[in-house]
Amino acid sequence: MLINLKNISKSYIHKGDNIQVLKNINLGIEKGEKIAIMGNNGSGKTTLLNLIGTIDTPDKGEYIFNDKKLSIDQPLKLNKLRRNHFGYIPQGFCLIRDKKGFYNISLPLLFRGYTKEVIEEKVDEISSTLKIKHLLNKKPDNMSAGERQKISIARAMITNPEVILADEMTNTLDKESKNIVLGLIKDSRELTAIVVTHDILIAKKCDRILYLDDGIIQSS
Ligand SMILES: Nc1ncnc2c1ncn2[C@@H]1O[C@H](COP(=O)(O)OP(=O)(O)OP(=O)(O)O)[C@@H](O)[C@H]1O
What we know:
Elements: E1 3-14, E2 17-29, E3 34-39, H1 45-52, E4 60-65, E5 68-69, H2 75-85, E6 86-89, H3 101-111, H4 116-129, H5 145-157, E7 163-167, H6 175-186, E8 192-196, H7 200-204, E9 208-213, E10 216-219
Parallel strand pairs: 3-8, 3-9, 6-7, 7-8
Antiparallel strand pairs: 1-2, 1-4, 4-5, 9-10
Helix pairs in contact: 3-4, 3-5
The structure holds adenosine-5'-triphosphate.
């Protein structure tokens, strides 16, 4: 099993109240599995995705990745894991506004110290696949929401990650772009994908659908 969450709980303090967002989550995900997470607004989907991606840490429980228990109190180790294994497509894209598409997409490779030539080659490859070459010289403010979404997807995919975590990545995409992105995910047998979505058609293309209801997984 690649990802194994055991009795994971998470709460936030809001205006003095303790809001329990995830309640004793037990979840195992095999390498190569494609999982959809569905549920009402506020049911905890993004929180769960962030915990899996180690962007956030649980209050309670164990996270075992590739048979190793994660030390959630060691941020540097978590950073390394995140950088080496995960590609994250966040809700709201999180692009650098004053940098062009090319720079935004190449950022994870710059962090890894790749050469200019390799970066150019990889950006060219992913932008051809996603049909976004015309966006490489544009800044995010001059792009549509769907175009920004595709830059964010390219940035997450460019490292060829082991796990892709996607938070409503298709809601701004046209039909053709949705099919390209889903094809990219489905065609890779090795890639583990966890996709938060409100779109049942997207969810049905995954191997398994998890329904979150008020912080509890109802079915898997
Ligand atoms: N940093 C935070 N501080 C306080 N409360 C938070 C924080 N992040 C999330 N929450 C609360 O946790 C609950 C779950 O939020 P989450 O974003 O995980 O839901 P979601 O299922 O992804 O919702 P949506 O479908 O609207 O994206 C919500 O009630 C939200 O207000």
